[in-house]
Amino acid sequence: MEAARPVLGTGRVADYIPALAAADPAAFGLALATVDGEVHGVGAWEQPFSIQSISKLFTLSLALAVGGDELWQRVGREPSGSPFNSLVQLETEHGIPRNPFINAGAVVVTDRLHSLTGDARAAVRDFLRAESGNPLLDSDSVVAASEAEHGHRNAALAHFIASYGNLENPVATVLQHYYDHCALTASCRDLALAGLFLARHGLRADGSRLLTRSEAKRINAVLLTCGTYDAAGQFAYRVGLPGKSGVGGGVLAVVPGRGTLCAWGPALDPAGNSVGAVAALDAFTTATGWSVF
Amino acid sequence: MEAARPVLGTGRVADYIPALAAADPAAFGLALATVDGEVHGVGAWEQPFSIQSISKLFTLSLALAVGGDELWQRVGREPSGSPFNSLVQLETEHGIPRNPFINAGAVVVTDRLHSLTGDARAAVRDFLRAESGNPLLDSDSVVAASEAEHGHRNAALAHFIASYGNLENPVATVLQHYYDHCALTASCRDLALAGLFLARHGLRADGSRLLTRSEAKRINAVLLTCGTYDAAGQFAYRVGLPGKSGVGGGVLAVVPGRGTLCAWGPALDPAGNSVGAVAALDAFTTATGWSVF
Amino acid sequence: MEAARPVLGTGRVADYIPALAAADPAAFGLALATVDGEVHGVGAWEQPFSIQSISKLFTLSLALAVGGDELWQRVGREPSGSPFNSLVQLETEHGIPRNPFINAGAVVVTDRLHSLTGDARAAVRDFLRAESGNPLLDSDSVVAASEAEHGHRNAALAHFIASYGNLENPVATVLQHYYDHCALTASCRDLALAGLFLARHGLRADGSRLLTRSEAKRINAVLLTCGTYDAAGQFAYRVGLPGKSGVGGGVLAVVPGRGTLCAWGPALDPAGNSVGAVAALDAFTTATGWSVF
Amino acid sequence: MEAARPVLGTGRVADYIPALAAADPAAFGLALATVDGEVHGVGAWEQPFSIQSISKLFTLSLALAVGGDELWQRVGREPSGSPFNSLVQLETEHGIPRNPFINAGAVVVTDRLHSLTGDARAAVRDFLRAESGNPLLDSDSVVAASEAEHGHRNAALAHFIASYGNLENPVATVLQHYYDHCALTASCRDLALAGLFLARHGLRADGSRLLTRSEAKRINAVLLTCGTYDAAGQFAYRVGLPGKSGVGGGVLAVVPGRGTLCAWGPALDPAGNSVGAVAALDAFTTATGWSVF
Question: InterPro entries in the record, alphabetically (chains A, B, C, D) (predicted)?
Answer without folding.
Answer: Beta-lactam/transpept-like, Glutaminase
